[in-house]
Fold these 3 entries.
Entry 1:
Amino acid sequence: FLAGYLVQGMAEEVLCRGYLLGSAARRYSLPVAILFNSVVFALLHSFNAGLSALALLNLTLFGIFASICYLRRGNLWFVGAMHSLWNFVQGNVYGVQVSGMSKTVSVLDSVSTAEGSLINGGAFGLEGGLGVTFVYAAGIAVLIFLQARDNKSRAVQP
């Protein structure tokens, strides 16, 4: 399962961060390129079961987070590994749905209830819930803060 997630996660990152982000950044501003590849990433999941507007927002936020990580580190392997491990741990360790895909073998088992779907993401899995919205938003804020701090320290150096 891990090998499958490694291929799947890296393939999405090569397409979205490796190709689309770079191609769009050559024609448009970096924020536009980040948003463009992030929306495309979210739309790649359009036919997954249980998709909601919140899930699309969260997938877009993940795309923004992954784009900023990629730009800060300059390493597509890191982003691909992060994406793959996120999916693997959700599905095969915690036993929750991964982007609406049905569960297979997992160490733990989780059952989402309809009553908590705004929080737990319901049939789409954690990526369709508000908890993940806050995690991604916080991650983006931290990365932007770190970039601003780095830019400020570089500007001060002679």
Entry 2:
Amino acid sequence: MDSLVKADETLDDLQNGYYIIQKQKSFRFGIDAVLLSDFVSVKNKDKVLEMCAGTGIISILMYAKKRPKSITAIEIQEEMVEMANRSLQYNSLQKHISIYNMDLREAPSLLGNSIYNAVVVNPPYMKLGSGITNPDRRQALARFEIACTLEDVIESAHKALSPFGKFYMVHRSDRLVDVIYLMRAKGIEPKKLRFVHSSLYKKPHLILVEGIKGSKPDLKIMEPLYIYDNKGNYTDEVKKIYNTNGSL
């Protein structure tokens, strides 16, 4: 099975029975993926769609803990999809998770409209032109709205979701207004919002948001999540999340 891992890649133990193949010097998953996979609430009868799947880390973490009926993942970068498929093969997860090389804007028409109980996404955070674009195209596509915009993400999610299906996303806190506005405009009502802080007394840098397609307004602000304590160690809550979802 080690033949599935190429010379410029690593095989990383997620500490939950599964492994992930990643590039040594390119995009590697971070704590935002771990937090999002824990934030998602799905049942074992649910069909889940993950968009902007990258290496497939969120799908693997979701399956490890949540065990939904099926997970379909889509990613626009062909190289990432090929690598993610090798991770699925290494973990013998092909019957539970499928990943496709696909533009998310085309996903509803290709995979089906209104058929998913949940859509999960860790999208590019940065508006194109809002910073220095990484010269590595793989990194740039993961971080900047080059292949899709936030509006594209939310509109495609709405089309793919079944009535009252749930939408889960992690994003930068400074995009909060854009996120909430576009969710409501596209018919996904924001229902839960959680701010993520690097540590106590630091302003939030991430948000976790849950929305429901076609639901009535009723937004609940959850307790803030702090990643590090005052000694620079993971907080007890983050330790618990890692113990149940995997480890960096």
Entry 3:
Amino acid sequence: MTTFVHKRLWETIADDLRDEILDGSILPGSRLNEAELAERYGVSRGPIRDALTQLGRTGLVEDLPRRGTFVASLTERDLVEVYVLRRAIEEAAVRLAIAKATEADIAEVMRLLVECEEAYRAGDLAVAWEADMAFHRSYCRLSGNRRLIGIFDHLASQTVLLMRTSLATRASLGWTPPVEVHRHIARGIADRNVELAVRAVGAHYQYTQDRLSMVEEPAGPTD
């Protein structure tokens, strides 16, 4: 029997706006005007309002009293806070995933790891960060903990927005895709080695936090 997934109108609009925010088509700080969006989508303001409310729940937009709704302008401090939470839930996730994962589950984690690496090699960061989130979500899903997955999904959208607006400008600070630590996480899960997997998750977030804390020094005199 075929199952059809029917999205409500506001969900379709929310997904569309989310994609435009995350790919940079709608920039941080941009005002999201209900009337203009209703005209654009050919709907009443109700579905627009519901879509913006959903985006607010994920942290991608913020409603400012007497000013309106704007795309969130997140900072590197926000990213550090997000990563503290992601590290905690993903360390829990790999423990649960290792206890429950089938060989087919592990094969899917490895497949998404390969897709992530290929996306980074292709050089399209927007696509790569989405693939990165899919890899991390794969073992969060294997935890079987719905609340954990819900928290991850909430933080994942913020992570992509923050990575695009912050790390995209930080190549000079030595940030490179954490390909090797991703492999360690996957290997820990594949080998059902809890200690290795948890340590790899910690190393992943420490790697990025270390680079976020780096400050470019002004160029000094040359000899």
